[in-house]
Amino acid sequence: MTGSRIPERHAQLVAYAQSLTPPADWKAEVSGDEIIVMAGPSVIHQRNLLIVREQFDAHRPADLMPSENTDLASPNVGKLRNPDLTYIPIATVELGGNEVPAELAAVAVEIVSPSNPENDLVGKVRDHPLMHIPLYLVIDPREGGLVLYSEPDGGTYRRQWAGSFGDEVPVPVPFSFGLATDRLLRYPAG
User: Fold this and answer.
1) Where are the domains of the chain?
2) What is the mean pLDDT of the chain?
3) 138, 136, 186: which is closest to 163 by C-alpha?
4) What is the distance of C-alpha 62 from the center of its chain?
């Protein structure tokens, strides 16, 4: 696919994805020529997201607002991703619509889904730096792992911090705080 055709193809895929009627609480994303449909989150997922969001909220810059399940779009690279949590400029409300330019996001946070972990651990690690999302925090309740990717450059993240539940994640600017993870829950074994 040539570079000039990516925005056109992206628009077609997004339109098709938005025309789908998946079951309640499901969401769709676009990555290249793929439409990824995912099930809604579990209560453990939601609790972990709340723990993380409360801490980010306490350290968010005044010009950013939290948003859960917002479509972050990068038509030029054919990507539409929908992180569990992101922080975007309050001014993006003036853009209207359902999509926010991905490069405006300050962070993307994902709680790994047990039904489709590759989407968060492989697909988004590949897509988010291409979309110029400066921070990508992955929380994996399956094994209790944490990874913070930062400094996107040339389609990859140059920095990666890894730890386990209980460790403090060093979240850089614009938030600048240590994310406590000792209250995060793991998914039940099985």
Assistant:
1) 41-180
2) 87
3) 138
4) 21
> Topology of 41-180 in CATH?
tt1808, chain A (3.90.1570)
Q: For residue 58, what are the CA distances in angstroms to 35, 69, 173, 179, 183?
A: 34, 20, 14, 11, 17
At 47-91, the pLDDT tens digits run: 999 999 999 999 999 999 999 978 899 988 888 889 999 999 999
* C-alpha–C-alpha distance, residues 87 and 74, integer Å: 16
Indicate the SS3 state at residue 140.
strand
Ramachandran region, residue 147 (left: φ > 0; alpha: ψ -120 to 50; beta: rest):
beta
The Cβ of residue 163 has, within 10 Å, a number of other Cβ atoms equal to: 16
**DSSP code string of 74-95:** EGGGTEEE--SEEEEEGGGGGG
pTM of the entire structure?
0.80
